[in-house]
Amino acid sequence: MNRKTAVVTGANAGMGRVTALELARRGYRVVLVCRNARKGEAALHDIRRKAGHDDVHLVTCDLSVQADIRRAAAEIRERFPVLDVLVNNAGSLNGDYAETGDGLETTWAVNHLAYFLLTNLLLDALNAAPSARVVNLASEAERIGKIHWDDPNLRRDYSAVKAYAQSKLANLLFTNALAKRLAGTHVTANAVHPGGVRSEFGKTGGGWAGAAFRAMSVFFRSPEKGAETGLWLATSPEVEGLSGRYFYDKGPISAQAIAYDPAAQQRLWDLSNAQTGSAF
Q1: Plot region of 135 (φ>0 → left; ψ -120 to 50 → alpha; else → beta)
Q2: In the sheet where 187-192 sits, what is the strand order?
Q3: Staple 138 to which of 25, 127, 155, 171, CB 3.0 to 4.6 Å?
Q4: How far from chain centre, in Å, is Cα 129?
């Protein structure tokens, strides 16, 4: 069977797992990108069973480690040379300051630089499809975000909210910059605000931010509801050819003004290249 192929990061839990399952149910070949091999294997077998086919695959990857992103991207390109969908779903919220092995603040590394690096490394496979889509999970937390150009790692003045909001603003800047670079191709890039979602995301975070997230999560929407718009962007003919847009509940919304500033987009692109040792 000639299936379309979709890659979903953070696919072992929450919205990522729902997204992967629904894509598989719709006949897609789905590649689960998961940090934890045991949880990834459990999700793999569960999704295969519920979707009714075995064309679901696992690639382990710690998205906080750039060498691991490069390894995983190479594995994906080798095993699946044509990709129709990439859903950058995995995210991080850290109550306390932490750095990755690459010396980068973890929220920034996982929520932005992993999107930037993985997407660019998979662009050849996306371009090989007749029509392909990149869907980036953002958040309206971007509205209070600011890119701290001189200290993106926030070493001088860290807070969980500041780090998360900065990373979500970066998602919008990256999506818009990527859409411009993809103009004239058959690949589109869009972003989605899923709303507050009950999931494992943030629940294990330390400090007051993790505690606040756990307390507030009872008021959040289900992972199934949160995943709806991302799935729509990944699959619906209604959005065929649309690129560089931002959606909530299948409707267009606007980010803060800097997200549309070409100079800021280029500055973030250059910073991201520098921090990943790339030349995209």
Answers
A1: beta
A2: 56-60, 29-34, 5-9, 85-88, 132-137, 187-192, 246-248, 251-252
A3: 171
A4: 20
Spatial CA neighbour of 9 closest among 234, 205, 241, 212: 234
Sign of CA dihedral 106, 110, 111, 112: positive
Q: What is the DSSP letter of 258?
A: G
Q: Which of 120, 115, 268 is nearest to 187 (CA)?
A: 120
The alpha carbon of residue 112 and the mean position of all alpha carbons in its chain are separated, in whole angstroms, by 8
Say how far apart CA 74 and CA 277 lie, in whole Å. Answer: 17
The model's pTM: 0.93
Q: Are 177 and 57 in contact (CB under 8 A)?
A: no
User: What is the rounded CA–CA span in Å between residue 47 and residue 72?
Assistant: 21
Structure tokens at 184: 């004239």
Q: What is the C-alpha separation between 156 and 22, in angstroms, rounded?
A: 42
Residue 246's nearest CA partner among 180, 174, 190 is 190
Q: What is the average pLDDT value for the chain, to the nearest integer?
A: 93
Positions marked active-site: 164
pLDDT of 73 over the 60 cut: yes
248 CB-contact burial (10 Å; exposed 0-12 / middle 13-18 / buried 19+): middle
Task: Encode pLDDT of 121-134 as tens digits.
Answer: 999 999 999 999 99
Tell me which DSSP letter residue 26 carries: T
- Residue 85: alpha-carbon gap to chain centroid: 12
Q: Name residue 7's amino acid.
A: V
Please state, in angstroms and rounded to a whole number, the distance separating the CA atoms of residues 43 and 13: 8
**Token pair of 28, please?**
């897609």
- Cα end-to-end span (Å), the chain: 34
Q: What is the dihedral of CA 85, 17, 90, 278, to 10 degrees?
A: -40
